[in-house]
Specification:
By secondary structure, the protein is mostly helical. The protein is built from six helices and two strands. α2 packs antiparallel against α5 and α5 packs across α6. The longest helix has 14 residues.
C-alpha cells in the first residue's frame, strides 16, 4: 500500500503565510475548493482508497455520494480549479494513503473583512 509522507498541504487561492510554509500549496481559483473536494472523492472512491468498514459503521449516505462524485473526475475539475489533473490525483492519493489526516475547513471567511 502507498504510504504518504507527512506534511502540510494548503489549499488556498492566495499565497498566505501558511501557504508559504506548507510542504505543498494547491493554489485553486477562488470559490473552487468544493469542486476540488469532489474530484478528490472521485479518485478515492474510484481507486477504492476508502475505509468501507468505517463508512458502513459511522456514516450515512456514502453510496449516493459515491455515485455523485463519478461526475467529477480530475480532468473535468482541472479546468474549474486551475490545477492540473495530475496534481489533483497526486493529492487525492496522498490524502488517501495518510492514516491520520486533519482538515481545517472554513477559515477563509474569517480572513476577509467582507465576509458575512
Amino acid at each position: 500500500m502507498f504510504r504518504a509522507a507527512p506534511g502540510l498541504v494548503t489549499i488556498d487561492p492566495y499565497r498566505t503565510p501558511t501557504a508559504q510554509q506548507a510542504d505543498e500549496h494547491l493554489m485553486v481559483r477562488p470559490g473552487t475548493d468544493g469542486a476540488l473536494a469532489l474530484a478528490v472523492m472521485h479518485v478515492l472512491v474510484a481507486e477504492d482508497r476508502v475505509d468501507r468498514e468505517y463508512l458502513a459503521r459511522a456514516t450515512v449516505g456514502f453510496e449516493p455520494l459515491a455515485r455523485h462524485v463519478k461526475d467529477w473526475p480530475p480532468e473535468r475539475v482541472a479546468s474549474i480549479t486551475g490545477l492540473p489533473s495530475e496534481t489533483i490525483v497526486a493529492f487525492a492519493r496522498r490524502y488517501g494513503a495518510t492514516r491520520a489526516s486533519f482538515l481545517r475547513i472554513g477559515i477563509g471567511s474569517r480572513a476577509t473583512t467582507t465576509a458575512a
